[in-house]
Amino acid sequence: MKILVAEDDAMVSYLLKATLSKWGYEVVAVHDGEAALRALQGPNAPGIALLDWMMPGLDGTEVCRRIRCDKARAATYLILLTSRESKADIIVGLQSGANDYIIKPFDHGELQARVGVGRTVVELQQALVARVRELEDATAHVKQLRGLLPVCMYCKKVRDDQNYWEKVEAYISKHLDTTISHGICPDCWASEIVPQMSRFGINTDSLKELE
């Protein structure tokens, strides 16, 4: 999990980077708000950001506001770092779009717990996005089945996208993740099964209950 640390105090930035790296995070460190915004809006952006409230250029709350207005990055988990601890400040920070708020000097256990919550949220969001893509792919396959489907007029095999011919059962199972079960329809029962039974001298009247 990649995490951004935006902190203008060199010592605090170093401690955060060392601590988070020890916990297994890939850390990207910047020292002002504009650099933080570029990092969060760039390719392969971190999913979590620790933002100092007071930074050169854009402050942490402004970075939060801009990220929340960016639909492509609005799901980023944002944590404000600040020495401000009044309820009014906390409200302002959260209203700016921050997911969480850590007061400096921070406790390592609290930092680990709050960042861990952020990681869980980001991973759930990523799993949800992957599931949505799977459903979209499945829907596309269903639409394909509802469209024109090439079927051999003799053997009834189906032609797939790679121009291979396969049995209907195999085609449906592959594209719809469905197990095929076989039965006998009433017409085939009357035209195929009953005559064969009659040839063997079986009274077909006794089979009516099975039709």
UniProtKB/TrEMBL annotation:
Molecular function terms, GO-annotated: phosphorelay response regulator activity; transcription cis-regulatory region binding
InterPro entries for this protein: CheY-like_superfamily, Sig_transdc_resp-reg_receiver, WalR-like
SMART domains registered for this protein in UniProt: REC
Keyword Disulfide bond among record annotations: no
Pfam families in alphabetical order: Response_reg
Stored SUPFAM superfamilies: CheY-like
Keyword DNA-binding (UniProt): yes
Domain Response regulatory, residue spans: 2-119
Xref: CDD domains: REC_OmpR (cd17574)
GO-annotated biological processes: regulation of DNA-templated transcription
4-aspartylphosphate PTM positions: 52
UniProt keyword terms in alphabetical order: DNA-binding, Phosphoprotein, Transcription, Transcription regulation, Two-component regulatory system
Example of a GO cellular component annotation carried by this entry: cytosol
Protein name: Phosphate regulon transcriptional regulatory protein PhoB (SphR)
Species: Fimbriiglobus ruber
Lineage: Bacteria, Pseudomonadati, Planctomycetota, Planctomycetia, Gemmatales
